Amino acid sequence: MTDQSPTSPVAMSRIQVRLGDLGLAKENLRFHEPADDGVPQLADTLLAAGVVIPPIVRPGRKGEALFMALDGRRRRFGLILLRERGEIDDDYRIDCLLAETPAQQAAAIVLPNTEHAPVHIADVITAIGKLRKAKMDTQAISTALGYAELEIKRLEALAAVHPTVLKALRQGRLTLKQVRLFARLPDKKQQAEIAQTALDGYFQDYQLRAVVEHDRATVDDDRFTLVGMDRYLAAGGRVASDLFGEFPDFLLDPEVLQGAWRERVQPIVDHLKAEGLAVFVGREPGYSAPDGFFRLAHVWERDLDEGQKTALSDARYQVTQLESALQDLDPSTEEAPAQLAPLVSAFGVAAGAVLTRSKIGAVLLTPSDGHGLA
Q1: N or C: at which end does the chain have fewer Cβ atoms within 10 angstroms?
Q2: Pick the residue with more confidence: 245 or 5?
Q3: pTM for the model
């Protein structure tokens, strides 16, 4: 007895068939059913986007058309209606899959479309773009393609990306999630350049994400913690939600956010100045020390004398006490800055606790997580 390996199914070849050469095979399970009321809508879709799902055909036999559709009955009805309207003729070419073997023909008759003719999402996106150019509204496209209206809106945004992006998606070089990142880039040339790196095999997801997120403020911005939505909107700030629901809400007016944050930290600035400190305010961490000052060096506790250790311990304890008292503080409340001011002072005391020949003379306030500043 010998083992026999199962034979892999033979893939159907893709061919183009003239409409005038395409008949409907009697094997089609719905051969005797007439065209339904939805065929005119389908015809409009076919005219705008073409035949997205290739019908499966077999070679015609004696007395039949050159090719006979085993599936795609409604698509054929739609094309015939377009021919009757005079919008296409018998020479209209249709991409089809040719079922030559009995096994292929049997599969074409009994399997649902989703099993024997899967449609790549890139083709759906392209079809939506064509339908939109044909002035079809979202509801009509939703009905035609069988997608929810929200999903149509999301895919429509993808239809506007550079063709190179969809090419990379179709080839499996990009994921749908990555294509959604491309849709957020307004520069089509930049889209094409980055997508080409995917086709060439050296695309890096984090680089695309960095380009998309550059200079975009969201509700996760550290400054927003202290400002809050109500205060931002009252100052004239605008908000936009991400169409794909993958990013936090965007703050469209970063200068409004910066101005509101600057106003919020002013009570802290006044408090620190009253203690004799010079106060500087920056947009982000990473600034060097202002002229006339220097940054504190890292403290190695093993190098401290007992007096310095005690001073540092006491200062840190005071910070801990204040942080515990403020753990339930909502930074966006009106009184929050005044309540945070003593804590900022305590951080300054702790930072300078080990100094013997100099003292803390200046504070640089910048946005930070937690309470919204550091």
Answers
A1: N
A2: 245
A3: 0.58
